[in-house]
């Protein structure tokens, strides 16, 4: 045991500069993720500010039972699942496809220009993006003005429940697709060029090289990011939905994050119930992460854990 500790201490000292680089990230997680876990006990309390978290009376599982008795909470759970499952279909592959397309471009100059154009929207806040969307799609916006000038009738895009979710996926792809593709571009750049040369000698065309060289080589990256995405299935994108939703589409847009915000800040606050909804969301995320990792590892042999 002593020899093992000595060896560990020696290894840490030899890699001390790497561990120093890890300290800021570790401090962030400790301060903002682990220390606040004390508040989890609030899920089992009827919070009283005068008594504090630990002094407030315990209510057992009552706050969790209330989740399944509240129609708005059940609707938010359903919307969260539906929106995030659709995100896996319509958003997750978009970054992969963009990375493959950029990789197939011959000119380095144009590749950099396109990469910059696609990456730039990531640095815009959702407040700005939703404002742009409103200017284009509002009743008096650019699109409706064009429709009226062409002899058509105005369409209330932003209040149409059938259009709200497609707009979510389209705007997210426009804003984040370029940024998300960077990690795939990095994975593609690490592929051994001799693999492409061998494929060319064997008579493989560009499309065949994509399916038989590029995609298999970046499969581990795709798998890891897919598992992490499934592990966030109860996080439907609060900021985007919060700024894009309105009363007309609330039935299809209200997710757990916006529901927690509403019951905490726009109604008589019940902090115990809000904490219970948040803990429920985190537990489901953990379960989905482990389930996705187990399933994908069985199917591909690659997962988060060795």
Polypeptide structure, described:
With 306 residues, the chain is mainly α. Helices cover 72% and strands 0% of the residues. The chain is built from 17 helices and no strands. Helix 7 crosses helix 10 (161-189), helix 13 packs antiparallel against helix 17 and helix 16 (256-265) runs antiparallel to helix 17.
List low-confidence stretches.
Answer: none
Q: What structural class should be given to the helix and strand makeup? A: mainly alpha
Helical fraction: over 70%
Please indicate the percent range of residues in DSSP E strands (runs of 2 or more). Answer: under 5%
- For the termini, the CA-CA separation is 25 Å
Element order: H for helix, E for strand: HHHHHHHHHHHHHHHHH
Number of helices: 17
Q: What is the makeup of the main sheet?
A: none
* Rg over C-alpha atoms, rounded to the nearest angstrom: 24 Å
Average residue pLDDT: 89
Outline: flat
**Quantity of strands, as a count:** 0
């Amino acid at each position: 045991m002593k020899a093992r500790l000595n060896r560990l201490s020696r290894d840490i000292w030899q890699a001390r500069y790497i561990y120093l680089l890890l300290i800021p990230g570790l401090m962030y997680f400790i301060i903002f993720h682990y220390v606040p876990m004390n508040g989890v006990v609030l899920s089992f309390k009827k919070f009283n500010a005068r008594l504090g978290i630990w002094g407030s009376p315990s209510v057992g599982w009552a706050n969790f039972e209330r989740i399944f008795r509240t129609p708005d909470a059940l609707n938010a759970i359903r919307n969260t699942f539906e929106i995030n499952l659709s995100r896996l279909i319509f958003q997750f592959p978009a970054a992969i496809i963009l990375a493959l397309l950029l990789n197939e471009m011959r000119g380095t100059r144009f590749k950099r220009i396109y990469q910059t154009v696609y990456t730039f929207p990531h640095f815009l806040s959702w407040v700005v993006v939703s404002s742009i969307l409103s200017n284009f799609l509002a009743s008096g916006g650019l699109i409706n003005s064009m429709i009226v000038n062409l002899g058509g009738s105005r369409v209330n895009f932003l209040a149409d429940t059938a259009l709200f979710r497609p707009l979510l996926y389209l705007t997210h792809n426009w804003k984040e697709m370029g940024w998300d593709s960077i990690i795939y571009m990095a994975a593609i750049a690490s592929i051994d060029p001799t693999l492409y040369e061998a494929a060319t000698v064997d008579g493989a065309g560009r499309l065949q090289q994509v399916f038989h060289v590029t995609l298999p080589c970046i499969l581990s990256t795709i798998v890891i990011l897919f598992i992490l995405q499934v592990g966030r299935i109860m996080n439907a994108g609060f900021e985007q939905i919060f700024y894009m939703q309105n009363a007309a589409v609330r039935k299809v847009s209200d997710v757990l994050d916006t529901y927690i915000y509403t019951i905490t800040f726009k109604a008589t606050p019940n902090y115990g119930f809000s904490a219970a909804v948040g803990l429920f969301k985190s537990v489901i995320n953990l379960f989905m992460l482990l389930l996705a990792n187990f399933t994908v590892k069985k199917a591909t042999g690659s997962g988060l854990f060795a």
